[in-house]
Automatic annotation (TrEMBL):
Record-given protein name: Multidrug resistance protein 3
Subcellular location(s) of the protein: Cell membrane
CDD domains named among the record's database cross-references: MFS_MMR_MDR_like
Lineage: Bacteria, Bacillati, Bacillota, Clostridia, Neomoorellales
Keyword Cell membrane carried by entry: yes
Molecular function as annotated in GO: transmembrane transporter activity
Gene behind the chain: bmr3
Organism whose genome encodes this protein: Neomoorella thermoacetica (Clostridium thermoaceticum)
Record's keyword annotation contains Membrane: yes
Length: 486
């Protein structure tokens, strides 16, 4: 076994979490490219394919905060390693399915493994690195995520041209390596608090209530907002969440520490994270519709066209992380969201005959903005909490981002599909109707513009919210003192 001095351990820990992040991003981006092909191969409806994508995001959104709290109680290593192993097994199952329903079920199992990794990844890095180096570490992590986002779509196109099942089989050897590496290298370096209890009632209320709300937001426009089960989900979920808030304010050891939201810095950082997810979440998904359905390009070239965003983010993320260690997160986070808004505005001008170079330009601008936002914002969140609260702090950050993306995809699909028949949307997505020969192109483009306008407005609001964290940031120190950063 490699020697693990205190100085060296932080790099081993970072290598474990970046490998997990790389696997997760590769999985998401390769799958996104392959969805139209999978729909045709499994004879799956558009609703089933959307479930394939959304079940993972919904499950992660709901489970990560609870898992983060469990990790604060029992430790992070065992949960992270278990998540890596489960994700790997589920990837194998995904590659063996014979129907759309089986794929949705396998993706749910995969989401449990992904949740165990996501809930602990950032906290493991924060435990291992001193405050002055945390932004740098998170920047490296973001750079690897960006690299995965660059490689993923191209790899997805290549694997899909061979067979779509390799989208999932490809994860298995990486997952085995990652599981073994994490099991060998990770350790618990933070002393676990004694006498901690898990809030089962609060967790149950949150899980059920939030699931109901997200399901209603996701499928309300598709089946009709007046449909009984949509109304029941919204009302019931809202009541359960109100009860959850009441319970969490009256128990000694809550699942979700609501005091996090009473701290100005954290409230603004979490809110801007949520709004960024809503602004950006649907963009890639809708561009896949446009590239493959309107332009009629194959999965490989569609994947290549998605890489400028990720490349820009990959190069900027480590720089913004280092800058946030020195100058704080407020201006950098707000600048990133404002730059992203410029790119989104460009996409509102997208037309069927828009030159490819122009589309690439707007995607690069969006990537630059995202790179300037993520590392500083995460640095601010993780640097502002004590070690025993890092799991729930990281879990809440992931929950906010994923909830935003779920809402974004639901809204984006609803706005795009509002003026089209279900048959036209199905044909567009599956690639059986391409260009002006098969679908009402102008109706689709009008809906696409509405979705991008909404994303632009929300990104502007997010930039303003990011500034509301205040001009100074207080970073938690293990001694109990704080240090201010302008």
């Amino acid at each position: 076994m490699l020697a693990k001095t205190k100085e060296n351990y932080k790099w081993y820990a970072l290598s474990c979490t970046t490998l997990g992040a790389l696997l997760s991003v590769l999985n998401s981006n390769t799958l996104l490219i392959a969805l139209p092909v999978i729909a045709r191969a499994l004879h799956a409806s558009l609703e089933t394919i959307i479930w394939t994508l959304m079940i993972y995001m919904l499950a992660v959104t709901v489970m990560v905060p609870a898992i983060g709290r469990v990790a604060d109680i029992i430790g992070r290593k065992k949960l992270y390693v278990s998540g890596f192993a489960l994700f790997t097994v589920a990837s194998l199952l995904c590659g063996l399915v014979q129907s759309g329903g089986q794929l949705v079920a396998a993706r749910f199992i995969q989401s449990v493994g992904g949740s165990l990794m996501l809930a602990n990844s950032t906290a493991i890095v924060t435990d291992a690195f001193p405050k002055g180096q945390l932004g740098r570490a998170l920047g490296i992590n973001s750079m690897v995520i960006g690299a995965g986002a660059v490689i993923g779509p191209i790899l997805g196109g290549l694997l899909t041209s061979w067979h779509w099942r390799w989208i999932f089989f490809f994860n298995v050897p990486l997952g085995i390596i990652g599981t073994l590496w994490a099991a060998i290298q990770l350790r618990e370096i933070i002393e676990l608090p004694e006498g901690q209890r898990f809030d089962w009632l609060g967790t149950s209320l949150f899980t059920i209530g939030f699931t109901f709300i997200l399901l209603a937001l996701t499928f309300g426009d598709m089946v009709g907002w007046h449909t009984p089960w949509i109304v029941a989900s919204l009302v019931g979920g809202s009541l359960l969440m109100l009860l959850f808030i009441y319970i969490e304010n009256h128990v000694d050891q809550p699942m979700l520490d609501l005091s996090l939201f009473r701290q100005r810095l954290l409230a603004a950082a979490y809110a801007s994270n949520l709004l960024n997810g809503i602004a950006r979440g649907a963009v890639t998904f809708l561009l896949i519709f446009f590239f493959q359905g309107i332009w009629g390009i194959d999965p490989l070239w569609a994947g290549i066209l998605l890489t400028p965003f990720a490349l820009a983010m990959m190069f900027v993320a480590p720089v913004s992380g280092i800058l946030s260690d020195r100058y704080g997160s407020r201006e950098l986070s707000s600048l990133g969201l404002a730059v992203s808004a410029i790119g989104l505005y460009g996409l509102t001008r997208l037309q069927i005959n828009t030159p490819m170079t122009v589309v690439i330009l707007w995607m690069v601008i969006m990537g630059l903005g995202s790179g300037f936002f993520f590392s500083p914002n995460t640095n601010a969140i993780m640097g502002a909490v004590a070690a025993e609260r890092r799991g729930i702090a990281a879990g809440t950050r992931t929950m906010m981002n994923n909830a935003g993306m779920v809402i974004s995809i639901a809204l984006g699909l609803a706005m795009t599909a509002s003026s089209m028949t279900p048959e036209a949307m199905q044909g567009l997505f599956a690639g059986t109707q391409v260009g002006s020969q098969g679908i009402a192109v102008q109706e689709f483009m009008n809906g696409l513009h509405r979705a991008f306008w909404l994303s632009f407005i929300i990104s502007i609001v997010a930039a303003i919210v990011a500034l509301m964290r205040g001009p100074h940031e207080v970073y938690y120190q293990e001694t109990g003192s704080g240090s201010n950063k302008a």
